[in-house]
Amino acid sequence: MTSVLYDNPGPAARRRVRFWTAVSVLALAAVVAFVIWQVARKGQLSAAMWSPFADPGLWRQLFDSLFATIKAALLSIVLALVLGAVLATGRLSDRAWLRWPAFVVIEFFRAVPLLLLILFGLFTWGPPLSFIGTAIGATPPDAFAALVVGLTLYNGSVLAEVFRAGINAVPRGQSEAAYALGMRKTAVMRMILAPQAIRMMLPAIVAQCVVALKDSALGFIVGYQELLSFGKRIYQGGADIWELPQPPVVTTLIVVVAIYIVINLLLSWLAAWLERRMSRSRKLAAAPLTAMQTGEEPVAAGPLGGGEPPK
Amino acid sequence: MKLKRLLAVAVIGSLALGTVAACGGSKLDDKTKKDKAASGSYTIVKDPKFAAGSTMDKIHKAKHIKIGVKFDQPGIGYKNPTSGKVEGYDIEIGKMIAGQLGLDYNDNKQVEFVETVSKNRETFLENGTVDLVIASYSITDERKQLVGFAGPYYETGQDMLIRKADKDKIKTPDDLAGKKVCSVTGSTPLANIEKNYPKAKPVALAQYSDCVTQLQNSTVDVLTTDGAILLGYAAQDPDHLMVVGKPFSTEKYGIGMNKDRTDLRKWIDDRLDASFSDGSWKKAYDLTLGKSGSEAPNPPTLDRY
Amino acid sequence: MVLAETAGAATGGLEFLWQQRGPFFSGLLGTVELSVVAGILATIIGLIVAAMRVSPIPALRVAGTAWSGFFRNTPLTLVFLATSVVLPLVGIRFAWADAIGVDTFFIFAVIALSTYTSCFVADAIRSGFNAVPVGQAEAARAVGMTFGQTLRLVVLPQALRSVLPPLASMYIAMIKNSAIAEFFNVGELTRFFDDQVRDHPEHLYAEFIAVAVGYIVLTLLVSGAFNLAERRLAVSR
Predict the structure, then answer these.
(1) Best residue in C125, C169, C191, C209 to probe A by mutation, most A CBs within 10 Å?
(2) B49 in the same domain as B63
(3) Which tens digit of pLDDT belongs to each residue from C61-87?
(4) Dist CA B92 CA B273 (whole Å)
(5) For residue C3, how far is the Cα from the chain centroid?
(6) What's the whole-model pTM score?
(7) For residue C186, which of A4, B160, C37, C56 sits 20 to 30 Å off, Cα-Cα?
């Protein structure tokens, strides 16, 4: 394969690559082995340390807590889609009194740490909105409300920019042709731009689900009983309950990390699959936005990172 | 793409391996572990006599009581991560009172334990979500305006949890100079330490359980908050941790209920008084917080009003 | 009437914030310290990981991809928790840092934040390299430039231009992410908010706005600096 940095290797280069492959495999294996040995030396990887995970009672509650994580992430991403659509509509409006507030709201919630929003929510919108948590069966309900609203405000603002980028990515000819046919702006948006943009944005939206799922782990800080909180309960009281020589910290963390990674990889695959499907589809006038271009951390950032201020 | 798949396979593989290893590791002692869950038995009064129309009578006839407890406080109110049952000192007190009402506390249709957190206790009592709150609930004059308090059933105060090895080094808060003292970010105990013992090095983490893990790891030297909470953590690891046992503030845990249910409040006060003398109060302590190795304290003086 | 009350509350809030300017600026400084140290470390690790991911050696590419895949899919909160719990467990407590007055937990926070951020740095750099048309380097090699010359004179200047914008977003994201360090004993801006809310709940809104403005100023500074750099590097194409 040719890359920017080097040509296809010739025989001498291939020999060099083989040599350095051997060296790096050894070096990497040594690093991994050292880390495992360090942890195992403390007895953290012994069979006993895995024994809590042979307990079906634990898995029942582990799945409950995973469900709590998914509940928070899913609800907030659905709400964020609505909020994002509203904000993007405002941002793309012809009226300055709609455009400017939308711009300020979007940029504010993208510039402020999500954790700060959630903590603030605990004192403001959390208690009055706790009925949502009660209705959904999330404990404690006010922490759930603070978390979900925080996630919604943040992800909604990010998605608003995704939507705007999507609408702007539809080739100009499409809307010009529609206007030429005598359609009004709302009709152009609804019938021409939005259908094409939404298909392009699907991968980016799914990628944003990964972000929401990861960020829902902030819930543990405000006491929401989700996956990470439950993981902590396993290792914190585990030694006493399963009569282990020490708290099963490392094994628990491995299991919790593995759960997050598996779910997120599934979502990433979904995004990649959508991306491929979309780019195959002939009906699209423009290439889909990739996860890299929009959803993930890089773009989900600060004021001037995204769009220019409206005129 | 291929690499991603490889990664996922590796992750799933290690998960599976973990489970297999786990199956190999665990023996047949599952039963003993689950039975070990602290659980005392208390008198269930067969046919208690209550004045017709009283709150106790209504609860007894409905054969149902909802008690708000904590789910995340080991030794006090803790949902066991394997059995899913709640256990702890507050639970024992709840069972004791339910038994006196003629309810079978082993039947969760009759006695239902619901999770309450610090912020929603008053709301839960006002709107009737729960009948009682037994959740390390300190009696204060402010709260007395909103809810009725029976008790106190336990008296505690800000105390210190330390490693047993440091038993001779840390005896009073004055020994905290240069020591790393852990508590929850933005909490009152931490503010107390910062204000009154400026030579201590405060460490602020997300939750008390994080402090316990760091204490076991020797990254911090002391965890400070209510003694009862500390006893609960010490009971989980009595070989390594201990509570100093010289509280430097006073907290009185009470049983919260709707303010209008004066009859219930006075009746519970009488039942608590009886439990202080007939040994069931001490039994509740010994089964839970007592596992920390600390002796049961003297019963507190009831605050009847 | 309502307006007058609002104005009264606003001046009261401002007065209160002026009194608390000491803790506020020390919190701001904490955020800056953590962000700068973690940012430098994240850039170094990110460069190494990016180099691994574009290297001709398959084993290094796999390792780089695994590193990125791991941190991209793990919550930062979990990375913080794992770092602060597992490192002391295996005996890494940075006792030497205590001696020179650096808190152990600050180092844990730096490690957690920088390893997590490094995978996004690596991705930004890698995509920057991939954005350089292959023909550019091929042409450079065709006129006889060495690997070093190709990299220095042809590839890097072009890659840098397309790396800067995502890199700026990343540092901004990192500054915001540093808020989590509050719960791992780092005295920073969000900690100021939490402490003030505990002691003076009546000024909740003033405290929130002050801290939010603090973060907005920091992010504006970063994006301003990067905009300046971009303009310096810009060429008409």
Answers:
(1) C169
(2) yes
(3) 999 999 999 999 999 999 999 999 999
(4) 16
(5) 40
(6) 0.88
(7) B160
* The pLDDT of residue C66: 94
Interface test with A, best of B9, B14, B69, B119 (most A CBs within 10 A): B119
User: Cβ–Cβ of B185/C199 closer than 8 Å?
Assistant: no
Q: What is the CATH number of the domain that holds A123?
A: 1.10.3720.10
Indicate if the alpha-carbon torsion angle A118, A120, A122, A128 is positive or negative.
negative
Which tens digit of pLDDT belongs to each residue from B96-114? 999 999 898 888 889 999 8
Least CA distance to C55: which residue of chain A? A5
B223 and B176 in a common domain? yes
Q: Domain limits at A270?
A: 61-305
How long is chain C? 237
pLDDT band at residue A103 using 50, 70 and 90 as cut-offs: very high
A19 lies in a domain? no
**In this structure, which amino acid lies at residue A122?**
L
Q: A170 - beta bridge partners?
A: none
Q: Is residue A51 part of a domain?
A: no
Sign of dihedral through CA atoms B99, B277, B56, B97? negative
Length, in residues, of chain A: 311
CA distances from B59 to B50, B66, B86 (A): 10, 10, 22
In the block, tokens 């350089």 appear at: C132
Residues 6+ apart with CB under 8 A from A75: A136, A148
The CATH code of the domain that includes B227 is 3.40.190.10
Residues B232 and B136 in one domain: no
Half-sphere exposure of C191 (CA within 13 A, CB side): 24
